[in-house]
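This section describes the prediction task in plain terms. A model, or a person checking by hand, is given the sequence of a single protein chain and must write out its three-dimensional structure as a string of tokens. No templates, partner chains or ligands are provided. The sample shown here is typical of the held-out split.
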Amino acid sequence: LTGPAMAKGVEDTALYRYHRLVALNEVGGDPHRFGVSAAEFHDWCKRTQSHWPATLLTTSTHDTKRSEDVRARLVLLSQAPERWNVAVRRWSDRAQRYKVAAGPDANFEYLFWQTLVGAWPLSPERAREYFLKAVREAKLHTSWTRQNQDYERAIVAFTEGVLADAELTGDVASFVTALTPAAQAASLALTLLKLTAPGVPDIYQGSELWDHSLADPDNRRPVDYAARRAALRRAVREAPALAGRSEGGLSKLYLIRRALELRRRRPNAFGPRGRYEPLAFNGPGSDMFVAFSREDSVVVAVRTRFFAEKGDEQATQATLPPGRFVARLGAETTFEGSISAARLFAAFPVALLERED
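The expected answer:
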């Protein structure tokens, strides 16, 4: 009936109850929509460019349930389900010692493990605040207006017990470390698509570097602008040497800077009349990549699957628009005609090419 009713019913209740993959439980999203095909993505982009070229493109806001980098890490769980299944069962077995009669229930526990992986490292203070908010919003065992003290104490005891268990948290940390290269590549892909697809990109302050934050209590933290200014100076001074380095989010900031520079040089390509054309990959890994051109002068290519076989990347080819293109991320390699995905992504996890005039 109204925006507030929708928000309370869906965003502040349903999205805290159903946890199949919490990366989908986002403001404006639909948890039933488990990804789209490349064809659907291209159709959306062409329709947006035709009808709403000035629409906002954003991946984090003050109200997102989880930051863009948390979601980028969590979506990888759908690409490694066997590994995830084994890990969750192992962690759950060990964590039974921290449960009491009052709870928590299995539904909360599945939210717990996803949150731990997505936002790791997570301090007990942050975790306690977030999980109390989550169970109150769900309104299944407790709520903001009718708090069940026994259940909430059980949530806090479980959270603190798990996070004080060095063996268990070490296992979680190892799992996250193994995911990190793919998760960072996924985040860079999301960032590049936002900066180059039809629409007007928005960079939420604080998300220029890696940011694994949750709705509460993190969305009220001040942004460390001094750290970001220092990182930007490094990105200017040391590029492209830092192109493949991910510490502290330097590779993300580097990508943002280079993409915005290109948008400034090529305003017509990204303007309301800038032509959008899908580019096809051909070969055994063709469904693992997405690419498009803007006005035939800019080419964007990203991975959609992040545990691909290297042989598939070598055997999968993309055909560029006519002309000679220069890579604007990493070493300024030149490309022309048909190129392999392996060569396209050799210097950086995503590709941004500009045609030489």
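For orientation: The longest helix spans residues 166-196.
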